[in-house]
Amino acid sequence: MDEAYAIKRFELAAELLPLRWRKAALQIPDWKKARAEELRMRTGRTMTILMPEGEQMLVTTPPYPTVTQTDLEQLCDVVTGYSRYAATHTISKGYLIAQGGFRIGLCGSAVMQGGVNTNLRDISSASIRIGRERTGLAEPLLNGLLDDGQFCSTLLIAPPGAGKTTLLRDLIRILSNGTEEMPAHRVSVVDERGELAAMYQGSPQMDLGAHTDILDACPKGIGISMMLRASNPQIIAVDEITAREDLEAMEQAMNCGVKFLATIHARDLRDLGRRPLLRQILKYKLFERAITITAEEGRRRYHVEAIQ
């Protein structure tokens, strides 16, 4: 990744912060800006930066300032353009999407109505994920995902924070745009958590390709069936398979000839087979290829293998 681009993304994320925290964030060394993954704020605690090796304090010399609830309220106001009511749907799911493609995870007190969370009040913490595009990241892996020129349904496997979403995003872009050896595909994305496309006022903030249709903030089990009816997809892409409903919807779409591109939390295929729900993925034969992501000496490695 280009260092200047990584630094610029950090600085854009820092612009969302209340003034005193923004100034502190912009003063850190460029090498830290380039490697930072999240900015994290918790009431009564000092602000931290999530680095590949763990969280570090933003202000490293005393006195250490602490985050107030007013800071978090100001953050939400800036991100929503002082129209928080318009973002109630995503706030109730625990996140906001800011212009520029930044996803802000939120915690606070749930507002329950009829057994359903409808909002969050008294925001207690926020994490700004510094989403970065890695254009071309997936290109060396593409040949391993094709069989006689045809894309094979592919599952991306890795623990949390290993870069599955970044790789998935670039795979979607390549499949949607096509290459000299491979035609463009119609790709439907069910972006339940808003991380893949980072939709802001109806426009994707991340490049998912020229032939991609995006359904934002919809549960995967529902969204897969909707996209199957509405968009005539060749490939359906989702992030983080977590529920039996996801698998049932995917099996239905597979029977209609659709290919899949998805991520899941696990260490490898063996780990996948140990857990009852995840074992269903292998039982249904939803995927033909797996990409396992591991970290070696601080670098991510990608291993493509066939799923038998």
**Integer average pLDDT:** 92
The helix/strand class is alpha/beta
User: What shape does the CA trace take?
Assistant: globular
Helix content: 25-40%
Uncertain segments of ≥5 residues (pLDDT<50)? Answer: none
Descriptive overview:
The protein is globular. 38% of the residues are buried. Strands 13-10-14-15-9-16-17 form a seven-stranded mixed beta sheet, with helices on both faces. Strands 3-2-1-6-5-4 form a six-stranded antiparallel beta sheet. Strands 7-8 form a two-stranded antiparallel ribbon. With 308 residues, the protein is α/β, with parallel strands linked by helices. The longest helix has 14 residues, at 164-177. The chain is built from ten helices and 17 strands. The protein has helices at 3-14, 19-26, 30-35, 69-80, 88-91, 164-177, 220-230, 244-254, 269-274, 276-284; strands spanning 38-42, 48-51, 54-57, 95-98, 102-113, 116-129, 146-147, 150-151, 154-158, 187-191, 199-200, 203-204, 212-216, 235-238, 259-265, 289-296, 299-306.
